Amino acid sequence: MSSAEVLQGGLDLLAVALLALGIKGLSKIRSARAANRLAASAMGLAVVGLLINAHPTAVTWIWIAGGTAVGGVLGALTARLVPMTAMPETVALFNGCGGLSSLLVALGVMLAAKGEGLTPSLLVLISVGLSVVVGAITCTGSVVAMGKLQGWLTTPGWMMRRWRHGCNIALATGVLMAAVLTVVGSSDALWPLVIGASLLGIGLTLPIGGADMPVVISLLNSYSGVAAAAAGFVVGQRLLIVAGAMVGAAGLILTQVMCAGMNRSLTAVLFGGALGVASAGSKENSEYTNITSCSAEECALTLEAAERVVVVPGYGLAVAQAQHTLREVARLLEKHGVAVTYAIHPVAGRMPGHMNVLLAEADVPYEQLKEMDVINSEFPATDVVLVLGANDVVNPQAKTDPDSPLYGMPVLDVQEARTVFVVKRSMGAGYSGIKNDLFERPNTSMLFGDAKQVLSNVLGELKVLGVGQ
Ligand code: NAP
């Protein structure tokens, strides 16, 4: 073993350790930023290891360094320019890029071997088959997922029909046959394999409803890890194998957590498709009869008299970018002696951890964030609940109405508190598109308006009352 190989091995080992620490750190808001840096350094070390042990020609180095620079600049620009609300689409695009890279690596190795008249080993052939199939499905599936989340794509009518399952099964059978032919050494099957798997990615993702899309994105994230691990076997890179396996496992765990949060089975998400739960759209709902609305002044007066206040953030808070104003309101109340906590529903917002990230941006102390299971038992002893741009996650019908599309989804029992203020712009529905019984409860008051504007008004009223001054 050459000294360059030994050095690369050492760097790979260090990178794996940093990557593992990074993934662990991402599970806590406080350590997430540092964890991200650790994982990025791990990738940096991997590139250095490659450069040290690469074929010592200027061309090889230029390709590696050039690719790293282009990818790094694009990543940095994306991190700066993309707003939080567009993060699911961005993650989808990144997954697609991961799938495409693995696909291209496998294709490159096969085409190079064909050009030189060599037959790769059985392990490499199996890995190529896996990289191409999973990579192509991930790539086209992720592009479709991004298009659907952006509103660029909708499910065509014929995709709503059950016979689409027949088409997908036929495609999957073709892909399997092409994969077997590739593994036994027929290079002619390679392009049909690429095309079939790409079509399968579209066929599997296009019928899936918008509300289920973040679950699919997390599953595609897992696939991109599997494809990368397979590509690692193709090019004999240990680090790629380990990192791919970590991403694959993490994506699968996240998928399970999200399915549990929405009370949907993975099978229902994948094969229920457009026949499943209704998706996005803020439909105006005229069925409401007993609605009480109030002013920012009344809300401020109730908050001033409260001892315990629970804030329930939802998607609308992110849309309004009202987290900083919310933090100012909370600071005043805390100075006044009010205990303020935040109830975090696992699928509030539009991506896992959306609310945690949003509140962390405004420096909300992590200890004040409470998981749904913990906070639900505390609502009966709560004076005021402030629901900010949240809807489905506080809909009591999820527990009471077996016909509701939300039935079975765990929700925050805010109606158990003494007073509930719901801040939103209209009587429009949430993501599920259905009515919310909470708005008609006798202890609920609606505060209509953009969350940031309403919170600024409440802040102004609290200052007039001298709260926290
Ligand atoms: P939601 O049910 O979609 O409701 C958001 C509410 O915010 C809407 O009713 C809207 O009402 C209001 N709103 C929008 N813009 C606003 C603004 N500028 N100011 C004030 N209010 C505003 O959101 P959620 O309660 O957070 O529930 C999340 C939903 O997404 C669930 O159905 C969940 O299953 C789904 N989902 C989440 C994930 C995830 O990973 N987090 C994944 C998949 C699906 P108005 O239009 O009247 O203002």
From TrEMBL:
UniProt enzyme class: translocase
Keywords assigned by UniProt, alphabetized: Cell inner membrane, Cell membrane, Membrane, NAD, NADP, Translocase, Transmembrane, Transmembrane helix
Family of the protein in this entry: Belongs to the PNT beta subunit family.
Claim: Cell membrane is one of the keywords in the record: yes
GO terms under cellular component: plasma membrane
Topological type in the membrane: Multi-pass membrane protein
Protein name per Swiss-Prot or TrEMBL: NAD(P) transhydrogenase subunit beta
Keyword Translocase: yes
